[in-house]
Input
Amino acid sequence: MDTGLLIALLNPTIALALGAAFLVLFSYQRHRPYLAALGASYCLSAPGFLLQYFTLPIGVALTKLTSNICFTIAACCLSSAIVARYGRRVPYVGIGIVTGGGLAAFIWFMFVQPDLTWRVLVMNFGFGALSLLVAAELRTVRNNGPTEKILFALSLLSGLNFIVRTLVVVIAHGPFPSYDGFYGSSYWTTALLSHALLSLLIALCLFTAAALDVMRALKAETHTDPLSGILNRRGFEERATLLLDQCGKAGFPVALMLADLDHFKALNDRHGHEAGDRVIADFASKLRSATGARGAAGRIGGEEFAVLLPLSDLGAARLFAEAIRSFYSAGAIDGLPPGTRVTASFGVAARTGREGLMPLMRRADEALYKAKKNGRDSVRLSYERPEKTFVAEPLAVG
Output
């Protein structure tokens, strides 16, 4: 087998391997359709490269057209998948204009005004413009980690590869009058090698992104209570500690609210555990809606909940708790008999100085205990301040 054939088979082999890997990954993560688009993209590029080297019985012109159709669809799938992966709206119109224009120009210079050099230029310019379009979409992506920055750089590099490299090689070694010797030219060699390198880099980056997605999902599962849908105790403590640290550095007030469903055991005994589960899910849903994204809401025990409220002092936290209490006690819960009233008791404490989460929770729990002891369905506040630890200073001598 000659060197040219080995180089020609390099890209199809890499593409098929990467395409199969993405499709296998998709088979385990069906909720991420962008993985299927990536698999289709790489699988389609394999016959595209093979048909550049081998000619079908339909003739050279139709074989090259088929090859470039494969490349075009593969490029559309790849660009759409990358943009969709990062939550951006896929610019289907822009993708269609860029790739459709390139393919139309290719057909013109293949059948109407045959010119190999112009066919090379229009296809590469189309793919280069598509790469730059993806880079423009990724430029606005924020807080998704390092992968989008790497893909942004690779998209720019790919655009330069398709446009600048092609121009330089065509000016230096072109034009190309026919396919005789074309596959041994510097253009074709650099095109194959650069495409192989960029394909590997983009695929590795996307595999990393997919792995990060799985890790985030697993972390969310370990930090989320499956019944209530809000944070479990571990997740709440981690999130609350982070918020306390951020508010402490910024000098913002923070308050903590603990809530406990009243007579929950009796409700379970009377109406069954399924009804109890609905009560917990309903209360958690109301907490989550009221807390929003700025705070942290968690189920820290069987029927006990906690909410950390950044930018809230004791008065604001009391109003928050009273609103939850009155709203919840006045509402009906699906699945419970009409007229069944479910209430909750609340304890609220505001952070003092650099007070940590555990001391803050102890004070809020003491206030909650007072609410339970004094008839339930009420809000009690902790006015106590945490004890300060004084460090004795050495006496001055002399």
Summary: The CA atoms of residues 183 and 379 lie 80 Å apart. DSSP finds twelve helices and five strands in the chain.
